[in-house]
């Protein structure tokens, strides 16, 4: 399961997945605007799942923890165009413009209805991927600026988001981990998103959960998987990825070590036999 990225520059790229199914987990460093041209993409967050098909357009703010699933559909590969808005571009754009800020930035993912401005914008990017040479820097700057200007025309709240360059603040560690334990991310990412250094994260984690992060994450993911298998009657192949395991072999080994039996051999649930009246 691999993803090909035809890339004229890191800020504007064509993503293509030929395989039937590709899954990864990401925390984007930059705000990302994308349009799906063929296939299907699912973005799974702790509290919501977005499904995008051909023609759909989505804006993903930076520092969003999610699973991304891409797959071909109707005999076509997954293809999308992605435009990244990096801090230096945004800072240069807003440096010489006046704008009005809202109370706080809305960091939820945003989908857009079809609009001539967005349709013509992405259509203008497609021919760039036929070039044999790198896209000139001046054109990259112009196209990124055009994308920002279009978003500003369509979303009155976008300035508050795009002009905010602050790092994540310190948040409640227990609440964040209970909500996001299934994402298979390095501890450095968890620490960053909770507003902590890795040393402070480890210290606060031990204080909160009385164990190490890795041990807690493994047990939490196994408990979640066990529930999905035993209560919802799902299969191990359907569960291991969403529970935060990289492959089925590691999942099966860890599951058997923790529970004493393989995920394919769950014991039958105990059935209580009601006693006779008067017993």
Description:
This protein is 37% helix and 21% strand. The longest helix is centred in the middle third of the chain and has 18 residues, at 137-154. The chain has ten helices and ten strands. Helix 8 (213-230) packs across helix 10. The protein has 279 residues and is of the alpha+beta class. The chain folds into two domains: 4-162, Jelly Rolls (Sandwich), CATH 2.60.120.810; 173-259, Arc Repressor Mutant, subunit A. A six-stranded antiparallel beta sheet has the order 1-2-9-4-7-10. A four-stranded antiparallel beta sheet has the order 3-8-5-6, with no helix packed on it.
Question: How is this fold's topology laid out?
Answer:
Blueprint (H helix, E strand, L loop, with lengths): L3 E6 L2 E6 L4 E6 L3 E8 L1 E5 L4 E5 L3 E4 L4 E7 L6 E8 L1 H9 L14 E3 L3 H10 L11 H18 L3 H5 L10 H8 L6 H7 L4 H12 L3 H18 L5 H4 L8 H12 L20
Antiparallel strand pairs: 1-2, 2-9, 3-8, 4-7, 4-9, 5-6, 5-8, 7-10
| Radius of gyration, whole Å | 23 Å
Number of domains: 2
User: Largest beta sheet, briefly?
Assistant: 6 strands, antiparallel
Shape: globular
| Assembly of the depicted chains | single chain
Percentage beta strand: 15-25%
The beta-strand count equals 10
Strand order of the largest sheet: 1-2-9-4-7-10
């Amino acid at each position: 399961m691999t993803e090909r990225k035809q890339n004229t520059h890191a800020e504007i790229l064509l993503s293509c997945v030929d395989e039937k199914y590709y899954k990864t987990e990401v925390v984007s460093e930059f705000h990302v605007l994308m349009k799906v041209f063929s296939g299907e993409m699912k973005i799974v967050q702790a509290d919501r799942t977005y499904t995008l098909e051909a023609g759909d357009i989505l804006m993903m703010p930076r520092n969003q923890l999610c699973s991304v699933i891409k797959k071909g559909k109707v005999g076509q590969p997954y293809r999308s165009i992605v435009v990244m808005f990096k801090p230096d571009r945004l800072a240069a754009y807003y440096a010489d413009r006046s704008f009005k800020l809202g109370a706080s930035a809305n960091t939820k993912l945003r989908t857009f209805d079809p609009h001539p401005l967005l349709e013509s914008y992405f259509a203008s990017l497609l021919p760039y991927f036929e070039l044999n040479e790198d896209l000139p820097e001046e054109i990259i700057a112009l196209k990124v600026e055009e994308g920002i200007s279009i978003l500003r025309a369509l979303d009155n709240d976008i300035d508050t988001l795009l002009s905010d360059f602050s790092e994540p603040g310190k948040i409640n560690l227990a609440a964040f981990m209970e909500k996001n334990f299934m994402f298979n991310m390095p501890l450095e990412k968890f620490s960053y998103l909770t507003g902590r250094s890795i040393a402070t994260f480890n210290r606060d984690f031990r204080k909160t959960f009385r164990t190490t992060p890795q041990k807690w994450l493994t047990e939490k993911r196994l408990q979640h998987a066990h529930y999905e298998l035993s209560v919802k009657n799902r299969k191990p192949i359907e569960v291991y990825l969403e529970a935060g395991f990289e492959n089925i072999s590691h999942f099966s080994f860890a599951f058997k070590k923790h529970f004493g039996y393989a995920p394919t051999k769950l014991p039958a649930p105990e059935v209580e036999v009601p006693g006779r009246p008067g017993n």
